[in-house]
C-alpha cells in the first residue's frame, strides 16, 4: 500500500444502489492493514473543519491535515459525504438516512483488505447525530466511538424542539445549507436567489409559513425546517432512527464511548442523557467531559462575553489537545495501548465561576472556573433545594405566607424577549450562543433602543436571592414548578438562571450573566403526546426545565431567576391562539399570571453541591 496515500471520491453503493462518496487516507508503512477511523458529514468531506482547531487563534483545519495526524499514528481515515450532499448521490433528507447509510458503509469498510477489523467512529454535531444513529442499528462492527456535541438523545426534547417549542436554528441552518446544496452549486441563479434574501427582514416579519418564507424558492430545504416545526406533538415521527437514541437505548451497540460537550452548547441535555443511559446499561466504559464552551469552541477560554480562564482549555482536563484526546481514545480501544490519561474518574466537569469579575483587555468579564473529576453525573453530595418565588421579587427557601398573590404581565408575541446568548448554534448571523450581560444591544436581534437591561422589560418577572454570604455551587438539572393562568388558550413560560455580579469599577451597573434557560409550551403541560389547551382564567401547574449546568455563585453575588413567555429567535414565538404549530398567522396578546401564594407556591429546584 505504500504506492498511494489517498483514494479520492470512492463511490460505494448503499442497499438501494445510491452511491455515496468518500475520501480514504492511508498511512505510510509496510503493514497491509490498519484500524480505521470514520466520519460521515453533510458539510463536505474536503471542506475545512473548524471543530478540530487546537489553537484558539488558528484557522480551520483541512480534512487532509486532520487525516494526516491520524495517518502518522497508523490509522486509515475516511471522510464520507452524506446522501445528497456534495459528491454523494441521492436526495438529502436531514438525519433520517444516516443509520442505514452508516450501516452499509461500515459493512463495506470491514470487507476491505486494508481494514484490520478494528473501526472507530468520530463525530461532532451533525456527524455525531449520524454516528449515534448508526449505533442504534448495529450490535457489532464498531469498536469505539468519540461523540462530541451531538447524537440526539431525543431531538423532540433537545436539538430540534424543547419544551414543546421549536428551535429556530433549524430554519437558519436550512437556509445556510441550501446555499451549498448540489442544486445551488450547479445553478448560480439558485445561489444568487438565496444569497439575496434579507434574513434579518424575514426573521423580523414573523410569523412565517410554508411557501412564504426565506426558503420559498427552495422547497426541498424549506420542507426540512417546516416538517420539524409543524409536528409539535410527540409521536411516531419523533421516535425515528436519526433523531431519537433514547427509544433504542436497550439495543444500542455496547462499545466504549467518549461523550463531550459544553455548557453553552445546544446538546447539553443530549450528551448528559446519553451518558446516564449508557453508563447504566453498558459493560464497556463510558466517559463524560463537560466544559464551559459554546458549540465547537473547545480551544477557547471565552464563551460570549465571559472568560473562563486558561483552565477552560481542554488540555487542563484530559489531554494536551483535542486531537491528542481523540487519539488517546482510539489508541486505547483500537490498538490496545494504555495511553488514556487516567485519575480513576470517568467524569470531568468544568465548574464555572470563582473569577475576579474584572474586565479583561478584550472586554470580557473574568468569571473563571475549574475542573472537577467524579465517578458519576449528577455529582455526588448534590441536594435539591426548593427556592420559592415571592411577590416582592425575592427568591428564598421559605414559602410565601400570603393567602392569595399573583404577578401579571402582558406577553405580546409581536415584541418578544430577545435571545441574549444561551445554548445556541447554527444561528449566525441572527443569534449567537454563550454567556452575556443580560442587556439589550444592537448585537442581539430584536433588541430595541434605548437598550436597557432585560429586567427593565414589563414582560419579564425577576426574582433574586439576597446577597450570598458564602460561595454556592449549583450543578445539575434546573426545574421550576409554576402555578399559572392566562386569558388565552395557549402560551409559553420561560425560565432563565442568572449569576448577578455586584456593581464594581469594571461594571458600574453590575453584570447579569446567563447560566442556563428553558421553555415550556403550556398546551403540553400534561403530555407531549396529547396537548390540551387552557381554559382562560383557570389555574394550572406547569413544569419548566432548563438544561443542566455547573456554576459557582460567588460570595457577594445573587442567584436570579427570570420568568417570561418568550425567548426569540432561539425559539419560535407562541401566538397565544392554540393554532396548529408553524401554521397560524394570527397573534394575540396574552395576560399571563404567575401565582406566588401559600396555596400556589411556585418555586425552582436548584441542585446544590455541598462539597467538592
TrEMBL record:
It comes from the Bacteria. Keywords: Hydrolase. This is Hydrolase CocE/NonD family protein. GO terms for molecular function: dipeptidyl-peptidase activity. InterPro entries: AB_hydrolase_fold, CocE/Ser_esterase, Galactose-bd-like_sf, Xaa-Pro-like_dom, Xaa-Pro_dipept_C, Xaa-Pro_dipeptidyl-ppase/CocE. It comes from Sediminispirochaeta smaragdinae (strain DSM 11293 / JCM 15392 / SEBR 4228) (Spirochaeta smaragdinae). Residues 327-605 form the Xaa-Pro dipeptidyl-peptidase C-terminal domain. The keyword Cytoplasm does not apply.
